[in-house]
Amino acid sequence: MEATVLSVGKSVVNGAVSYAQSAVAEEVALQLGVQRDQAFIRDELEMMQSFLMVAHDDRDDNKVVKTWVKQVRDLGYDVEDCLQDFAVHLEKPSYWWHILRTLLDRRHVAVQMKDLRAKVEDVSQRNLRYHLIKGPAAGSKSVATAAEQYAAGSKASATMYGVDEARRAMKPRVDLAQLISKEQGKDLRVIAVWGTCGVLGQVSVIRKVYDDSDKFDCRAWVKLTHPFDPIMFMQSIMRQFYGYSSISESAAEGQSCPECASATGAEVLKKMLMMKQKDLVDKFTEYVNKKSYLIVLNNLCSIEDWDWIRTYFPASSNGNRIIVATQQVEVASLCVGRKYRVSELKQLSTDQTLYVFYHKSPQGGSDPMEPESSSNTTAIVTTNRTNSLVPTSEIPAGDQAKDATTGQNAVMRSLSRILSRTALLKESEVVGRVTEKIDILQLIVDPVNKEVQVISVWGMGGIGKTALVKDICESQELSDTFKKRACVTIMRPFNQVQFLRSLIMQLVVTETSEENGTVCSLGKVRKTLPWSVEKLEAELGSLLEEKRWLIVLDDLSSTTELDIIMKSLPCTENASRIIVTTREENIANHCSKKVENVYKLKGLTKKNALVVFTKKVFKENECLHLQYPELVEQAEQILKKCSGLPLAIVAIGGFLANQPKTVMEWRKLNENLSSELEMNTELDTIRTVLLKSYDGLPYHLKACFLYLAIFPEGYKISLTRLVRRWIAEGYSRPVRGKSSSEIAESYFMDLISRSMILPSRSSSHSRKVVDSCQLHDVIREIGISKSMEENLVFRLEEGCTSNSQGTIRHLSVSNNWKGDESEFESTIDLSRVRSITIFGKWRSFFISDKMRLLRVLDLESTSGLVDHHLEHIGKLFHLRYLSLRGCHGIYHLPGSLGNLRQLQTLDITGTNIIKLPKNIIKLRKLQHVHARGVGNNDEPVYQEYPNEVPKLTRNKLCILTCSSVGFCVACCAPHLLKGCMGIDGDTNRRDVCTACCCSFLPMLATRRCSRGVEMPRGIHRFKALQTLGVVNVSRRKATLRELASLTGLRKLGVTGVDKSNGGELCSALANLSSLETLLVQSEGKPGLSGCLDGLSSPLENLVSLKLYGNLVELPAWINGGLKNLAKLKLRSSRIEKHDAAIQILGSLPNLAILRLRKESFEGKEVHLHFQQGAFQTLMVLELSSPGNLKSVRFDKGAAPKLELLQYYDQPKEEVVSEENGDQFEEAPGVSFSGLAFLGSLKEVLLEGGNYKGDFVQNLRSQLELNLKRPVLKMD
Length: 1275
Known about the structure:
- By secondary structure, the protein is of the alpha/beta class.
- Among the domains are: 1-130; 154-245 and 266-359, no CATH class; 433-508 and 535-600, P-loop containing nucleotide triphosphate hydrolases (Rossmann fold, 3-Layer(aba) Sandwich); 606-690, no CATH class; 957-1006, no CATH class; 1032-1037 and 1048-1060 and 1075-1210 and 1228-1274, Alpha-Beta Horseshoe (Leucine-rich repeat, LRR (right-handed beta-alpha superhelix)), CATH 3.80.10.
- Helices cover 41% and strands 15% of the residues.
- It is built from 44 helices and 40 strands.
- The strands form 7 sheets. The chain has a 17-stranded parallel sheet, with helices on both faces. The protein has a 7-stranded mixed sheet with strand order 2-3-4-1-6-5-7, with helices on both faces. Strands 9-13-14-8-15 form a 5-stranded parallel sheet, with helices on both faces.
- A hairpin with a 2-residue loop joins strand 36 and strand 37.
- Helix 3 (35-58) runs parallel beside helix 6 (140-152) and helix 4 runs antiparallel to helix 5.
- It is globular.
């Protein structure tokens, strides 16, 4: 089964099941009187969910199942949409005039529920017709059985158990009747029947042979139940034994079959009813010991059941036969015994074949059960119950010289499997990897560590891990260091025996004969390799004893595999090494216990990428800029898409090498990379390697990854934005005490650790490691292709064709799409769209009444959006995420916003909204409100009127009157003020009037630039609110009292704090025990001075604190009270006691980031002294014009973990800068000392103005004395 189909299908059905099981759905069903329908649908979906879980894990490749999964996926969408639509309708207010409407709605809902139940029944019946699962009545075990059936049909399983050899064999086929009737000794024999399509055709084939077998004293056909019941099992067998014996006796006396069958049935029933359990067991034992019997065990699904059953049938010499019909190839192989044959029994159709497993004949003897041409028809397989994974590819056949040569060549190919994956990277092995090679070599040859060290090299697929490691292992530097070297690619599924045999063969630098599985040295047989793990481990230990060895484990994908391998390797103290290559960071960290042994391999630099590319295209080191200047632009675009990925660079370069060297050809590749990757066989390697990473994702991460196809090429995707959207879409739900946000963030980090997405702006020094990401362009193309296959994401862009594949769930409108309304509505079915994301210019038809199921409306940074475009937004009842971030033309939210009762996230940051509508208090599910920021300045903006304004007209009344008249005139002609007000879009009079009344007039009246938003009365009802900011508390004093009721708040930002409301702010904060992030801002003086002193107890859970405004001194509760504080930012604080403040901050036990911004300290001269033992956890220190800074001194032992030091000095206007070579002249007036003592320092960053030459030289001199050799960067 293609992983994408199952993953998306399972993700969708999970969402539907979660909602169908919820209390909300049950309440809806109760109110509507459709409880039975709702319960039926819920149960059916749970069955489908269980089936999809197992089918996804087993990677079934059945086309019928694939089609059915797609239907289940669409059904899951319909169920969830329908149930939530019902809930939304019930949440509407029930006024008396709505009674009639409510009755009509309920009737309509009942009809819809019946239709939905009919759809579910139809899908269930369909899978019964095609033998996919056994229907809802069979229970969850039938689903597991079906999933095992699919796993048995997979190609991997077929290869393991010799089925592939039987499939390739020439006819004739084995006759099941001959296997049963022909003499092959008198011992009990077991024959197993398995088919590529599960039970299809099994029963009819076995039944025919069963009915024709009359040589046995008794026979029975038993359909096994799960869990296995021994009493029922014996009763079923004895009932049939009695019946068969009676019929035989009656037939011998001359009675007709119908008569004797009728009489026998009643007699047997009577006998069974009178028999006690003890007598039943005794009779059963008597029959199986003294009589010959034929028993068919139908639907055996586990080897544990077989281990139990076979104890009831002792070894006897009566010629007994047991036929096992199973849906699992592994069970079929293990039931027969250690040595068995596999033959084709019957081909039902092109892709549906039955196979039979039976006992192998004695060595050297003939097998009477085998057809004459048995050498061509069967595969002989030897297995061990302790390890059922049989590497049949290593079982030789033939002893001719030609076969021996072929066998040697095959082993050579086996020993160099690693080359097959890196052949395409041959050209890029040396270029650009000198530094990486030196780094890894140093880790390998490090003489200090005598114990076995595991060195992990990780990175995304195609980055060149295998090529680099192989080049290092074969290098001259290691030839004399390690006496034993081997490189093994970890195959999946992992087979320990096969791995150990391959490793041993490489360690002795030998060849193996395919004829008998022996190890040879210089063409001479040395010894035969055993098949048991214990003997192989002993052999491996003797090879590595007292020798220094180097083993490469390539492409490790599971920590379990490494744990098994490590147990097989000897523990030595001679500086032996293991190198692991993997795509996942978590696996790398698990393998290498020491952080320094984990090495992340990154992409090639632009320079090296260009060298590799030109060498591949032109077969030599051409200078592209000189020889082909017209191709430079296209080459740069190609390399940008490759993003330093050697695999992609070499593959695309190789393809272009055989194409005309013209701009048109290269542009064609650039514009159609997605289709080329899918259709061009020369680029198959890229797709194959990268799809391996995708296929390795669990189902929930596949859905999350495909969702990223929404975003444009090269787009930086904010973590917060993505997490909020995933939650709104239902991709993340609370699990075992973890919130949906924590789960979504773990998904995000997991995708990064698996190299599926790239961190675009790393904050490695904070608690949140990454705050945004980007998609590698080549991986993005694959994601787009997969998401379109699943009808998950449709990108509306220039040149796109009308969607005819089915219902689209997520729509992304690119900035280059120029279509009209008719094209928009004809391209996709808007009624099923769940999310719309706009990149570029707004069109009035992007919001439609047809979008009744829309959950996400993301308009971030959309241009041309104005107030009247949001008039009908209240009709989107299912909306959970609304983002207007960066839409500068929005001044007011419509009152219909109150209809969005499902809304969870409202983001209006970067708009001109200064007051939220009153109806917002109806949104009880609101969790996150992001509003206006606090700006870059903490001073009042309009302190005085300009001098040009006459004094007579400077009073507030006059200003307001004149402004109102001007705005009224502008409302009559909106285009007059459109430009000066910064409104971009289809503006009408109402938009201009709204902008004037809601923004410009209030600012003129208060003579202040508005910060934050004003909240309406009643915000205490937002019990689900977790994020709120930034709120202006100066306009309504009751706001702070209401904030005290929001005990679930984790992030809060307030502005407008002063002496008048400082006490109420402290009282409110005292109630917010869950608060993790706090921002407090005041304007001018006295600012925050004394406003925060009233906090009775510190905020113990606070992680991030930002204080903007005049403090004079730090609040007392900061000293020793903020044990979890990791991030602190001060701005305009004007702290006077510098040393005391630094001492307090230095004692905070978990402070990782300290940012001292503009005017943090007050005084003629500011000297910052970081004393020994202070700032033990500090990792980032920012000093951005913190005052009249003169010196910064670090004592030895201060800030031992500091990694980044940022300094910004604002240039003074009166100083003229002069350029002198590569340095600049200006006097910053500050000196740094003690930088050599900072043992973890990695980087010093100078920002802002130009810096004096001797100042820069002094910094460099200190950094050169630092053992870490930090870099100095100037921005």
